[in-house]
Amino acid sequence: MQRELAHITEPDAFTTLRPVAAHPPRRNLTRRSTLAGEAAAAAAEVESALTTPDQRDTAAFFDVDNTIMQGASIFHLAKGLYRRKFFTTREIVGAAYKQAYFRFAGVEDPEHVASARAAALAFIAGHTVEELQEVGEEIFDEGMASRIWPGTRALAQLHLDQGQRVWLVTAAPIEIAEIIAARLGLTGAMGTVAEHHDGVYTGRLVGELLHGPAKAEAIVALAEREGLDLSRCSAYSDSYNDLPMLTLVGEPSAINPDARLRAYARGQGWPVRDYRTGRKAARAGLVTATVGGALVGAAAAGVALRGRRA
């Protein structure tokens, strides 16, 4: 039985226009991260199993992009939406470089990812939650399922087999995160929460993207609600940007890590697992196919995306 999702909005944060400072106060950024974390935890799909988990106070948290899945989930989502005429070819040309960079380098550029996800909010404005959920199921089958890393999937299953709960924690939209979690048989997911009224997206976020410190806030909120002992929990990520999440738990691990996280993890004695086999050969062999595919259908990023035309 699924718990009813909380409907959370933060109207004042989006309806009041204020001058943008060159350097926003740190407390505002912290507040937005806190809001994002709380919203993600409240929207998490917490499944009640028929039998009580063997380890009720222990859980595992997995990042998605390049940890569970090759590439960025928002790019695969946008590619599927493009095929369904949510936006035009012109609007996605600027995304080709960013998706190719992520695929080849295996490194998350915060500016690229943030611009992609912010743009995603623009093109879902006016669409319904039900519509995105239905399309998301189709898009997972078309472009995401084949990109799940088997090694990371096996790790998640190992935690489940040990009677632990497993959550995805990602900056991707919560609707997509929940689909991925459900398809992989995981407990649930926490992701970026887009504001909606009466089931229609407004084009605004609740708080901030679930990224960096906001992920840690989400895990803390969930742990308090579910009675988890974070010192006994595990976390997995590929990105140095996820240190707030990784250092929060007692058992952190680096999966397909970027250079900074690899160095940090080794210095801390954390497990490091890399499931990217033949990486240099793959980069060389996939350049043509990936760039070509990105030009005609890669995810939208850093551009103003319009809603579906009538």
Describe this structure in words.
With 310 residues, this protein is of the alpha/beta class. The protein has a single domain (29-46, 54-297), classed as HAD superfamily/HAD-like (Rossmann fold, 3-Layer(aba) Sandwich), CATH 3.40.50. 46% of the residues lie in helices and 13% in strands. The protein is built from 12 helices and 8 strands. It has helices at 12-15, 26-43, 73-83, 95-105, 110-124, 129-144, 150-161, 174-183, 213-226, 243-246, 259-268, 279-297, and strands spanning 59-62, 165-173, 188-192, 194-197, 200-205, 234-237, 251-255, 272-273. The strands form 2 sheets. A 6-stranded parallel sheet has the order 3-2-1-6-7-8, with helices on both faces. A two-stranded antiparallel ribbon has the order 4-5. Strand 4 (194-197) and strand 5 form a beta hairpin. Helix 2 crosses helix 9, helix 3 (73-83) packs across helix 6 (129-144) and helix 6 packs across helix 8. The N and C termini lie far apart (38 Å). 47% of the residues are buried.
Layout: helices, strands, pairs:
Elements: H1 12-15, H2 26-43, E1 59-62, H3 73-83, H4 95-105, H5 110-124, H6 129-144, H7 150-161, E2 165-173, H8 174-183, E3 188-192, E4 194-197, E5 200-205, H9 213-226, E6 234-237, H10 243-246, E7 251-255, H11 259-268, E8 272-273, H12 279-297
Parallel strand pairs: 1-2, 1-6, 2-3, 6-7, 7-8
Antiparallel strand pairs: 4-5
Helix pairs in contact: 2-9, 3-6, 4-12, 6-8
How many helical stretches? Answer: 12
- Helix residue percentage: 40-55%
Tell me about the largest β-sheet.
6 strands, parallel
Order of helices and strands: HHEHHHHHEHEEEHEHEHEH
Report the average pLDDT across residues: 73
CATH topology: Rossmann fold
Apparent shape? globular
